[in-house]
Amino acid sequence: MVAAVLIPVGIVPLLLRQLPFSLMRFTRSNELVENLARMMPVGVMAVLVTYAVWGQGRAGLFGGLGAVLAAVAFTVVLHAWRRSSGLSIFGGTAFYMLLVNVIL
């Protein structure tokens, strides 16, 4: 009885994690996937900036908007310096979280 529960509980997550890698060979030459790979970093940055400005911008200059503007400026400088989307996203997010939770 216990095995009837534990076996599917172990197998289903394993299969769900393997599925994207198994389907990757079918999408290597797909134009849509190539466009998504090229545009996703820009989309992620736009969502993060929109969320930060919209959600925290109402808290006032020093509580929210100042931290948002400082983090956006830091992210732009970091991206101009290294030209790495991943570093810009993670670095800007980490800097924002540092400002909001530790400094301000």
Helices, by number, come to 4
Beta-strand level of the residues, as a percent range? under 5%
User: What's the number of extended β-strand segments?
Assistant: 0
Uncertain regions spanning at least 5 consecutive residues:
none
Q: Could you tell me the mean pLDDT?
A: 85
Decide which structural class fits the backbone: mainly alpha
Shape: flat
Transmembrane segments: 36-54, 61-81, 87-103
Pfam families: AzlD (PF05437)
Organism: Corynebacterium massiliense DSM 45435
Protein name: Branched-chain amino acid transport protein (AzlD)
Model description:
The model has no long low-confidence stretch (mean pLDDT 85). The protein is flat and about 55 Å long. The chain is an all-alpha fold and 104 residues long. The chain is built from four helices and no strands. The chain has helices at 2-27, 31-56, 61-82, 85-103. Helix 3 (61-82) runs antiparallel to helix 4 (85-103). The protein is 89% helix and 0% strand.
Summarize the structure.
With 104 residues, the protein is an all-alpha fold. The protein has 4 helices and no strands. Helix 2 runs parallel beside helix 4 and helix 3 packs antiparallel against helix 4.
Name a few traits of the molecule.
single chain; 104 residues; mainly alpha; 4 helices; membrane; transmembrane
